[in-house]
Write a structure and sequence with these properties.
Layout: H1 8-38, H2 44-67, H3 73-79, H4 85-110, E1 113-117, H5 121-146, H6 148-157, H7 159-175, H8 182-202, H9 206-222, E2 237-241, H10 245-248, H11 258-274, H12 276-283, H13 296-311, H14 329-332, H15 340-343
Antiparallel strand pairs: 1-2
Helix pairs in contact: 1-2, 1-6, 2-3, 2-5, 4-9, 4-11, 5-6, 5-9, 6-7, 7-8, 8-9, 8-11
Length: about 350
């Protein structure tokens, strides 16, 4: 969790967040209009999401470069091509798929799902197109709700305030969808909490993108269920859940059930555990050196040279074992006495 900025920087970050939100609505409108003018009705959803991703990346990148002097504005949004990013995406897809399966299991146990398969060759091609649609839609949501605007808002009110604020923002948008309910609004809040946790733990959008994609695509493409009220995503699998409304969510799908809400809340501590290594790698505080600067190499060389000087042998010197004593005169003249020349 980051602490908010103070003074003019806090107000500036808040205004940047408002600009990012306004640009999101503008980009979404431009993408919808552009897709309708460029593609046939069947390709409109895919083209619209592709254009939305492009507009968000370009727009938020320009904001980061111009207003914040970011040298790599796309990477700063959470899309840095760092080591292991594909593994992070895979972790997110696995977690999203697991959440989808857990939410589908009560349907299978209670009443089952009537599945109709269309195995014609053209259906498999459209299946790939629908998978690309969900990948782009999930990426657009991550850029919009955990990218530049979210980061500016976190700088203004702190990480917790940004999570709660964007959870309310996403819930309002979901409440405007046809067929929404109190349960769907609660599910959107829980989903935002989960995805925001993934971003804050990893400081990137890879894990949250994978979760978002796995959660939506697994229900639509594998089980043929409705996603936020739309049930025509999968051309291969069409599923009709046969159970009570509080399990199936009716035509709105599992996004409108309280079971999904509690499953998403329970997934938050699990995700917290799964991202422990990533959190340590990208959220560990940077150690700033302090005290007096010391040149360890120079100190080591000085100690080494001092040790060598002390170990050098001393130069050759005269060693006097006994003092040279003078010979008394009476002894020197006695018979048999050694003279100095005889001793030599």
């Amino acid at each position: 969790m980051s602490t908010p900025a103070t003074g003019p920087g806090r107000v500036r970050a808040y205004l940047q967040c408002l600009a990012a939100v306004c640009y999101f609505f503008l980009a979404r409108s431009l993408a919808a209009r552009g897709a309708q003018g460029l593609a046939s009705p069947r390709w409109v959803p895919l083209i619209e999401q592709a254009m939305l991703v492009f507009l968000l990346l370009i727009g938020y990148g320009a904001m980061g470069w111009w207003m914040d002097r970011q040298s790599r504005p796309v990477s700063a949004q959470g899309l840095a091509r760092r080591a292991g990013w594909l593994g992070e995406v895979g972790l997110g897809v696995s977690a999203g798929w697991a959440i989808g399966v857990i939410c589908v299991l009560p349907l299978i146990i209670s009443g089952g799902i009537a599945i109709v398969l269309a195995l014609r060759p053209s259906a498999w091609g459209w299946l790939l197109a629908d998978a690309a649609f969900f990948a782009l839609m999930a990426l657009a949501e991550e850029i919009a709700f955990r990218g530049y605007g979210f980061q500016r808002f976190a700088l203004s009110v702190g990480s917790l305030g940004a999570v709660l604020g964007y959870a309310a923002f996403y819930a309002i948008l979901e409440a405007l969808l046809p067929g929404s309910s109190h349960a769907s609004v609660a599910v959107s809040v829980a989903l935002t909490l989960l995805l925001s946790t993934a971003y804050l733990r990893t400081r990137a959008l890879w894990v949250s993108w994978g979760i978002n994609f796995g959660w939506k695509a697994s229900r639509a493409l594998i089980f043929g269920l409705a996603v936020s009220g739309i049930s025509n995503h999968s051309p291969v699998v069409q599923g009709d859940p046969m159970g009570s409304f509080w399990l199936t969510g009716g035509e709105f799908g599992l996004d409108g059930t309280w079971i999904t809400f509690f499953v998403l809340l329970a997934a938050i501590p699990v995700l917290y555990r799964l991202t422990r290594d990533l959190d340590f790698r990208y959220n560990a505080p940077v150690i700033v050196p302090g005290g007096i600067a010391v040149d360890l190499d120079a100190a080591g060389r000085a100690q080494h040279e001092a040790a060598l000087r002390s170990a050098e042998p001393a130069g050759p010197g005269l060693v006097q074992i006994l003092p040279a004593a003078s010979v008394p005169a009476d002894v020197a003249g006695a018979p048999g006495a050694l003279t100095q020349d005889d001793s030599d």
